[in-house]
Structures are given as C-alpha cells and as structure tokens.
Amino acid sequence: MSDGGSRTVRAGRRRVEIRRPDKVLLPGGDAAREYTKGDLVDYHRAVARHMLPHLRGRPLMLDRRPDGLDGPAFMQKNTPDSYPDWITRVEVGKEGGTVTHTVCDDTATLLYLIDQASITLHRWLSRADDVDRPDRLVFDLDPSGDDFEAVREAARWLGELLDELALPSALMTTGSRGLHVVVPLDGGQDFDTVREFAREVADTLADAHPDRLTTAARKKDRGDRLYLDVGRNAYAQTAVAPWTVRALPGAPVATPVTWEQLDDPELHARRWTVENAVEQAATKPWAGLSGKGRSLAPARRRLAALRG
Question: Which end of the chain, C or N, has fewer beta carbons within 10 A?
C-alpha cells in the first residue's frame, strides 16, 4: 500500500512504513539500473527467510546511507531511542561503558532497518546470550587488487587445510573483492582462543605459499600478495552478514556459495546482486551448516602436529 510519499508493507503481524520508497540509494553498475529504497525492501522481503537465521540473536553494526552513496555514511552501533519498542536490543560492554546494539530477529525489524537506509548489515560472530564466545570463525581472503583468481586459489588451499583439521567450512562472496571462509563453532571457546587458532592457520598457509599469501597487517608489507585477514575474530568485531547488500554501485550481495561453485569460471566477488541473489538463496548453499559447530580443541592438536 502506498500514498506516494510512503509505502506500508506487511511483515508477519506487523506493518512497516517505508518512507520515500522511490529514493535512489544505490547507483547502477556498468550497465545497470539504479536501486531505490523500495527495490531494497522488495529484495529483503524475498530473501528474509534465508537471511534471518544468520542474524537472529546477534548484535549488529549498521552501515547507514540516508542519502545514498553520494551522501554521508555512518556506522551505527548504538540503537536510537526512536526505534520501535518491538525491535530487540542487547546491551554489551565496551571500554568505559556499554553499547545497546540492534538485534534483527524478524522480517519486520529487517524491513525497518532498510527504511532507515541501513544498506549493509554487519553481524557479530557471537550471540547476544554469550557475547564472549563466538560460534563462527571467519577468514577474510582479501586480494591486493581486483584479482579473483588469487582469491579462488587461496580459498582452495584454505579449504584443503581445514579439511585436514576436520573442520567444516563454507564459502561466501563478500560482494566486494574477496571471499569469506566461515567455520561453524560450538561456542565453547573465547575470542582470544579462536583468534589465536585462526592466526596459526593463516600463518601455516602463508608459510607454505610465501609468494602468494601474507598475514602482514600493514598494506605496505603485503606487496601483491593476498592478505589472510583473521582480525574479525575478536570481541565487538563484525563481518558482513550473509545475503546483505553492499553499499556499492550495482547493489552486489554477500552471497553464500558451495565449495563446488568455487570452480565456476563465472564466480567472482560481485557475481550476485539484488537482481539474482534470491535465486542462489533458493539452492540453499549452506544447508546444514548451523548444525555442524565444532570445538576447536581437536583441530588445535591436529594443527600443532602439522606445524611440527
């Protein structure tokens, strides 16, 4: 339902008002159309049932672009008082105080966040009921340039090593330049333990392929090597959520894929957009992943043996 300046959409038991649905938030890509707030609402309504399992119960950081890519951007952590009471919040500790993050538990909340021009949703790797213990580990494969073949190569090497460590893993395009490799955990280890393990895995790979991979935090030390970034595995750090839209021309989407799709020559970091990501979601590329959470203890022992 629309009155010209706004549009009301139903989401479960609630109705969400979408203000200025015709406002352009994202420009088109190389030969693509512009994307309005209404377009993003339609996409999120369609993908919500696939996206919400990756958002529920997790603190969020929101990349808001009220005036689109040409206007100011800000990363929102604290939930404004103006947000409706029915939106879930969680108060978490920070140095010198607390932050009250938004939690997206349902479609109505998701659509409300889109109305607020929250283009990209970044999620914590832990849940609101146990914020100190992550149930996801993320490796961010970050190429030095727009070189997806380097990303594909690094993902294969990382996948093989994780297989040796008997850890399940899943792939996701970032919607920008690289891939995320996600490992489900059982939530039994704290962030320091998880980050130390992730760093040891990355170091093992970089030592095996020193001309192709690096763990150097400073860009000037990386050269043209792909950066194995494990920095997201820390308290209060975030990673882009599966199926979220990136704040980039063409409205690319961070998209889960299967390991088999890594061999698809058409695969690249911006392969899916709001135009076609729902079709990929319907294939359920991460089917069963949520039930595969592992303890890191056996993997740490295996890694130690490999490293000698």
Answer: C
